[in-house]
Amino acid sequence: MKKKGEMKKVKKVKDKVNDGQDDDPWWWLVQERIRPSFLCISLFALLVRVAVGLHPYSGARTPPKFGDYEAQRHWMEITLNLPPKDWYRNSSVNDLSYWGLDYPPLTAYQSYVHGVFLKTFDPDSVALFTSRGYESYLGKLLMRWTVLSSDVLIFFPAVLYFVLVYRSMRFGMGQNSDVAWHIAMILLNPCLILIDHGHFQYNCISLGLTIAAIAAALSQKDLVASVLYCLALNHKQMSAYFAPAFFGYLLGKCLRKKNPLLEVTKLGLMVIGTFAVVWWPYLQSKDAALAVLSRLAPFERGIYEDYVANFWCTSSVLVKWKKLYSTQSLRIFSLAATLITCLPSMVQQILAPSSKGFLYALLNTSFSFYLFSFQVHEKSILLPLLPLTLLALEESRSILWLTHFAMFSMFPLLHRDKLVLAYMALYALFILVYFAPCGPSGRCHGTKTLDNTQKTKRSVDFITSITFHPLLMGFLGLCSLILHVIYLTMHPPNKYPFLFEAVIMLICFSQFVLFTFYFNSKQWMLSKHLTSKDKQKKLI
Q1: Does the residue 328 lie in any domain?
Q2: Axis crossing angle, helix 34-53 with helix 156-169, rounded to the nearest 10
Q3: Fewest 10 Å CB contacts: which of 15, 35, 264, 408?
Q4: Does residue 162 lie within any of the structural domains?
Q5: How many Å is the Cα radius of gyration of the chain?
Q6: Beta-bridge mates of residue 3
Q7: What's the structural domain count of the chain?
Q8: Is residue 449 part of a domain?
Q9: Where does it live in the cell (predicted)?
């Protein structure tokens, strides 16, 4: 009787929450006190970003081309001093061989806005021609502020939006402290902070727009979600890593509605309209549009650069892809491999769309692109990490292990940027936050599963037992620690100058592949446990 009374009480509370959400969208925010927690964590996350910004950046004082910092500054210089039609066109005033724009138009517009900001306080930092390699103290300070402001204006609000939506879906599960821990896992993601505020990029904009699109899709605002995702795609083309998941989830929901054709048409019009607005300056002529598109697909760079922990680079130890096959053939191979590996996740969402399935699909398709697509960089691991941080409460053990190897895979890059101190400090901070006493109650007992463990299929149990085997985890953890020390204290043999990078790549790749199987199996298990009521339910 007591248990039955408690169940009725919980049901009343849930009904009250649902009623409150319908009447006042901010009611839940005040009741659960998320806002104070979010503000405190955001301020701390902002201070961490400022501290990392005090360290060196990509290409600091290394002429003639410097690094990503100079690329971002140069784009501000170009967009501020030239008309839009010349931004992507090689000319005497825009040498595309010197950090030519190779991102979609929304990045160019962002560069223009930031260029106006720099010109207001330090005109020399964006002067045409004369500002190449400009590295004054004020210029660097202003550049760092542009990234911080992008975080505050786009990434942080998007995280708050997602947490509110996600928490409302999970009401009655876990404690309020779980919310604070979840926010910290997203905002204090060490990989994103190191790349944006150390190495120097603006991933926070495209990833922030993607998070907002995910939150909108989960809260049944599909048209808004399509616009936000198109904006993310028009900021960085790597946002296409999430395209199959968005397509499968939104199409799956449309097919379950009363008028599927109308719903699909509305989404299609929103996508076309968003692209038309963003690309408008380049739709005036075919040549202008083709000039932009040619810059977005740099196939001439080869199927991979440096030592990235994906299939093509790892297997090149045995198969010399670049020597055996033409660029055209490699393009076809990579396209086929990417489509084949991300197809199961997309199909699962078309057949049985669900909120959790959508998040797992985002994780799985982004891993497919990272492992098999053309021209992948070390920094691209940020894309699979995004949905993983959003699933932190479901995959608490996975986020610890994968974040470790994601950071490890970028260690050679960050070492070149002289960011080792920031790397170690952020890793230590991540561990402290992860093992905070206020973290999710289920974390210490392993990864939370979406279903009762007694109902989980043997295939998932088998993959889980391998993925989280104590001996394997201990061995790989020890190997990564030793490799960190070796990389910092020893020189590789002259015959094999990239030996250490190759070993790091092999270890990280093995883990990424193992987790890809694990997450795919978990996503497909979702459809096995849908009730008959869920399958017959029509979305209004």
Answers
A1: yes
A2: 140
A3: 15
A4: no
A5: 24
A6: none
A7: 1
A8: no
A9: Endoplasmic reticulum membrane
